[in-house]
Amino acid sequence: MSPSMNAALCDDRGGFLLDELIAQLSSSSVSTIINNPYQSTFVTCNIIVILCFLISSFTGNFSQVDKLWSTIPAIYAWMCVTDTRTQLMASLTTLWSARLTYNFYRRGRYDGWPFNLFGGEEDYRWVILRRGILGGCWTLYWNWLILYIASPSLVAWSIAMKRTHCGYEEGNTLNAIDKIAASIFLFALCIESMADNQQLRFQNRKLHALSAVCGLASATTAENNKDVMDGFCQSGLFAIVRKPNYAAEQLIWISYYLFSVAATWPQSQGTVSLVNWSMGGFVLLCVLFQGSGWLTEEISSSKYPAYRDYQRRVPLYMPKMSALWNLLIGEGN
Fold first, then answer.
1. Which of 26, 144, 271, 282 is deepest in the core (most CB within 10 A)?
2. Which helix (H) or strand (E) segment is 56 a member of?
3. Phi and psi dihedrals of 159, rounded to 5?
4. How far apart are CA 101 and CA 225, in angstroms?
């Protein structure tokens, strides 16, 4: 690490070294960039942004960014590994990445690989987004957002480097906030996996029912009959919230931010820094999910007549306490 970078690191109060690092980017050697995750992730992100936009525009399939969404955050996290905390963060994002990549595979997003690398099924929402003012330029924003939601790893790296080079003592071991963050992350990951499987089983039942002579021959219960007849899943986790995957995904990245908070945990008297610049990542992600949730809700309500009633009965992201209680005592759907 250069003397000027070392001084910037020791003077930094919020783990925000991006300005200093970008200023040195043009004069940095390749080895310096590789060894500095602020620079290496920034360079990697912008290469991906350009390639993803060009490939999407050329192929007409803008789900290229969806394929990257499931893998790139884990790569960014591993580029920041330098201590126990950043190792834990990278390991958790790898679990998240494995689940999402596998679910993409099951849904046909990688069809044709490796011979048709940029093919596969395009997400139906892109058809609508391309009609808007920004069109395919949404891919630029989403690729930058991927780096931003992974940025708590950069903050944790900064704090770890301050311990190494500046005698900084905060957050030198895993603490209670780390444990809370990891627990929330794993809980939300389990919710996503359960919702994936429930949705896949429903889609298989629906497909089989549509191809069966008697229509609903594959549905074995009245509840499943209703789901298939109405055209959308509304049992299991989907009886508690309409978008369990979306809700859990937001919770995952909120919990991921908590690791950057844990990195500032004081060794003696002092206060934890609850706010740092990487908070913007999960905030923007939550904003994105409000828009994406609204879009999918509009599509579903226009496609399925019974969906309006479902919207009145079941909340979008935040479950009702009565639904949680019924689930706890075994009386839920």
1. 282
2. helix 37-59
3. -65, -40
4. 30
**Predicted model pTM:** 0.82
* CB-based contact 295:224 (threshold 8 Å): no
Q: What is the pLDDT of residues 248-296, one digit of tens each?
A: 999 999 999 999 999 887 755 556 778 888 999 999 999 989 988 888 8
Chain-centroid distance, C-alpha 184: 14
The per-residue pLDDT for range 224-253, each reduced to its tens digit, is: 578 888 889 998 899 999 999 999 999 999
| Pairwise CA distance, residues 238 & 192, whole Å | 11
* Chain centre distance of CA 41: 17
Q: Look up residue 38 and give its two tokens.
A: 């602020």
Q: At what angle do helices 84-106 and 152-165 cross, to 10 degrees?
A: 160
176: its two tokens:
């209670």
CA–CA separation, 30 vs 114, rounded Å? Answer: 30
Contacts of 190 (CB under 8 A, 6+ apart): none
Comparing 198 with 65, which gets the higher pLDDT? 198
Whether 294 and 31 have beta carbons less than 8 Å apart is answered as no
pLDDT at 94: 97
Question: Which amino acid does the sequence have at 122?
Answer: E
Supply the DSSP symbol for 122.
P
234 near 140, Cβ under 8 Å?
Answer: no
Residues 60, 62, 67, CA angle at the centre, nearest 5°? 130
